[in-house]
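pipeline: protein-struct stage 2 | run 1193 | Tyrosine--tRNA ligase
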Amino acid sequence: MSRNVNDAPVSDRVLEALAISRRGCDELLPEADWLRKLQRSDATGQPLRIKLGLDPTAPDIHIGHTVVLNKMRQLQDLGHQVIFLIGDFTSMIGDPSGRNATRPPLTKEQIELNAQTYYKQASLVLDPAKTEIRYNSEWSDPLGARGMIQLAAKYTVARMMERDDFHKRFHANTPISVHEFLYPLMQGYDSVALKSDLELGGTDQKFNLLVGRHLQQEYGQEPQCILTMPLLEGLDGVEKMSKSKNNYIGITEPANAMFAKLLSISDTLMWKYFTLLSFRSEAEIAKLRAEVEGGRNPKDAKVLLAKEITTRFHNAAAADAAEQDFQNRARGGVPDEIPEVSLAGGPLAIGALLKQAGLVPSTSEAARMVEQGGVRVDGAAVSDKGLKLDAGTYVVQVGKRKFARVTLSA
């Protein structure tokens, strides 16, 4: 037993729960309130209600999205009630967070289609048997025009303009639509409807989470605490992980691709991935880091991370096979599974063959790759840009990762 809150001793179990809550987080506000909630829950056996709202703006989740899901799972494993809230109503408004222009709202059909796969993918991280799934249209649609006006009366324009993206757009004379003010209000109202004790989100969601805290007080509820998680850098180590920047790892990607992408991150970024994505204890990670700093090959640690993440989204056998495939590629071998391509027109020039097989975007790029020694046919390097291949079947390789089994007919 150690540390006192309001003269009441705090158990080691509660302190451990606080440490798990804080792991990797950017901010936990107010921490003293969260400690009191944890202490009350421990004393009464009543689980806390922990909310994560996600708008189904796209059907697929990448591992950057799972940072907050991982935190939810950690709190779920402590015995608390986690609520996975699908923002089918708020998606129709469009979240303005971090935007310098009005986000186009999604149609009802797009939202329903995306939501179908969203929770299925999130269930690869959360325990679906212990997860409460809700849609915010449940309480937002019945609110109606009268209720919306009454809700809007509980927050001021001055407070709304403190929000960073609204402030910047206003001073840059960039249009702000009135409906965008409704987004943080409706997200905050979700916390009222769910009687949330804690809401999770990325650092870009802090303003919205605080609105929820304010509205709960307005409605006579105990205000929620908020926990923000950092935004995960992508494979480039610079930009936030994003499909549009092509620096992402999708959680439904094939095991071999997922494993190889995780092995490609930098030795420095690897430790942030461990903290935010791994379910290993902080003590285990610290021990591993000390070993690397003491001379152990950092690739050993990266392989452990890649196998853990690949196992989570596939299975242990797939992760083992992906490791073997990666090692085979590193030795210059051919992966077990490569695309099969059928082409006609043999004999065919190597540049045309590479382009038609989808291994290069153009024949000029093919010529450049040949010049650099990056093209192999049946394991032999190609040095002649004028090479023509007769009818037959060939294993063709461009660079380290692009392969195809090409069957060429006359």
